[in-house]
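comment on this one:
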Amino acid sequence: MHWFDLARDQLVQWKLREKAARGFRKSFTTLAQKALDTAFDEARSRDDRFIGCEHVLLGLLQADDALVTKVFSDLGLTLDVLRSEMGTPPERDPGSLELSRLPFTPRMKHVLQNARLEAEGRGQSPVDEKSLLLALLREKGGLPGRVLGKLHIDVEALRSTVLSEGAAN
């Protein structure tokens, strides 16, 4: 195969991925998209190779949603607290590969599916940041669940608070 054919095939694959990404983004509100974009930035800043639940939780804390911010501040959960519970980022490899897109972990893909179900259950379309948070809280494993447990935060009570305050807004 000639180098030109390889480059053309790569370009076709890239265009297909971009088209899929645009469709994916349309299924989220602007604030939820902002949280996911911030999660990407958080993962890159830690030199992680995937976007996980912990990155999305950090993204939600920075998404400027009044309900999410209020719920977390009432619990004393701040960016600094969450980042310290996550631990320090690993040392960066100077030759590490810079990725323009990071894939989601399998657990985070499951959370995104659950976020869609949460949104549909609340009659919300597209998926909003509250549905994303509710789906994260539903996920028992993973770093956010461990961090919230370590901080003695009752996840079910937190879910109830988000649901009740979300209904009031």
